Amino acid sequence: MENRIVADAWESTRLMFDRERIEPLDPLDRFRIVTPKGTFEMTKSDFYRVFSNVVESRSYRHDGCYHYPSIPEKAWPFLRMVDRNDSENELQEQEMPGTTGKRLPSGQIVFDPRGTVTAAEIRLAPRPETLRGLRLGVLDNSKWNASRLLRHTAAALDDFEPAAVNRYVKDSFSREAADALLDRIAAENDVVVTAIGD
């Protein structure tokens, strides 16, 4: 059975590992660090295994302490939320800042696989009423089927009588088009068509 007795505990404004408090502990002794972000608890053995960078750091070895400016991802599995009476049974569901995870009352961590997406809204260019007399640019992203798809698309748009059809190819489908290429396309065309072609 896992030893749940806490051999030492301290409060800190950050996640701070104190050498003088940790080093006297036995490998299976537990210690607790209470921070504004939550209470973190682990064994000395856990600390040496997961935070080996701290153990080997000059700050810890020579100065006696190491603190993180923000909670690192590898610390979240050690987060415990206990009530003010320090009861072992009073774990609460807790948001884990900087992640999409929650710690359940059972102690398990559950991550939301949906994640979050943030993007600035981009307005589309106004759609022309006709292609007649306009210069049409066709940008191929260099994926296997993009060229074929765009050839057929350009052929279908030819019925709308564009003044010219100019074709361009990106260097790599996995990278953004070079600024020089985009500037050239903008200067030489009135309308541009592109596609992925997968």
Helix percentage? 10-25%
Spans with pLDDT under 50 lasting ≥5 residues? 83-92
Beta content: 25-35%
Oligomer: single chain
Number of helices: 6
The topology string of helices and strands comes to EEHEEHHHEEEEEEHEHE
Which structural class best describes the helix and strand composition? alpha/beta
Distance between the termini: 55 Å
What is the residue-averaged pLDDT?
A: 83
Number of domains: 2
Gross geometry: rod-shaped
| Number of E-state strands | 12
The largest sheet is: 4 strands, mixed
Q: For the largest sheet, list the strands in their spatial order.
A: 1-3-4-6
Any idea what the radius of gyration is? 29 Å
Describe this structure in words.
The structure is a single chain. The protein is an alpha/beta fold and 198 residues long. The chain folds into 2 domains: 6-111, no CATH class; 135-195. 22% of the residues lie in helices and 27% in strands. The protein contains 6 helices and 12 strands. The chain has helices at residues 19-22, 44-50, 52-55, 58-63, 146-157, 179-188, and strands at 6-11, 15-18, 30-35, 38-43, 65-68, 79-80, 94-95, 101-103, 109-111, 135-140, 164-169, 191-195. The strands form 4 sheets. It has a 4-stranded mixed sheet with strand order 1-3-4-6. Strands 7-8-9 form a 3-stranded antiparallel sheet, with no helix packed on it. Strand 10, helix 5 and strand 11 form a beta-alpha-beta unit. The two termini are 55 Å apart.
